[in-house]
What we know:
The longest helix is centred in the last third of the chain and has 21 residues, at 214-234. By secondary structure, the protein is an alpha/beta fold. The chain has an 8-stranded mixed beta sheet with strand order 3-2-1-4-7-5-8-10, sandwiched between helices. A two-stranded parallel ribbon has the order 6-9. The protein has 2 domains: 1-95, Alpha-Beta Complex (Spore Coat Polysaccharide Biosynthesis Protein SpsA, Chain A), CATH 3.90.550.10; 97-251, no CATH class. It is globular and about 45 Å long. The protein is built from 8 helices and 10 strands.
Amino acid sequence: MTLLSIVVPVRNEESRLSTTLSALKAALSTTREPCEIVVVDNTSTDRSGEVARLHRSGSVPVRLIRCDQPGKGAAVRTGVLRTDSRYVGFCDADLATDMAALAPTLRFLSTGVNVVVGSRAHPNSIVRARHTQVRQAGAWAFRHAAGSIVPGVGDTQCGYKFFDRRTADAIFQPLRTPGWAFDVELLARAQRIGAMIVELPVSWTDVPGSTFRPMRDGYRSFAALARIRAILGSEKTPAVAPVMTPVAEVA
């Protein structure tokens, strides 16, 4: 059985995808157990798919699948549900989160933690950001609004999250948010089923080239939060005893 699958959602990432895949392969090769990378081509119009195909061989295989529904959430959901590994997670194509986080992530999952969340808000995280004041203000407002849906989680949007198989299937199957704010719905569903969640300190570097635009995408993100609240409110809360309600912060 494959130990770990890492899903990488990709939309027009031709210029940096090769470097990212090489770094992921190097990190996964240290586990000495079968692992894989799943690149999800999300309606790219460049050579992203071709770049992924060039990395298919080697000790860590790379699979390429396509998701025709636009949106990071749709791409990650497609990738996760096409895996059957013991653990599965996703990271961004810019690899902003240093993969030194992989070893502690696997340790937590192997000891029974259900969800490991990379957290830039953790006091032990190292964050190198170059955001404008407008973007910083927007991020603060988004975190505040998201906190009413996923209380106790300091950073919902870091593109580094990993799950055990049972939890991944339970929360990705019903996921209905296709865009950037999908993490909020995902974590809310994890809390609903009583998943044990750990926020992990990370080393995170703001990488140039983000397609997120505060004025254009900020409004959409807040609208998505309203939809998530409505979606969850319309569903019956599962009658599952929580494994651990509070989020654990780890030094």
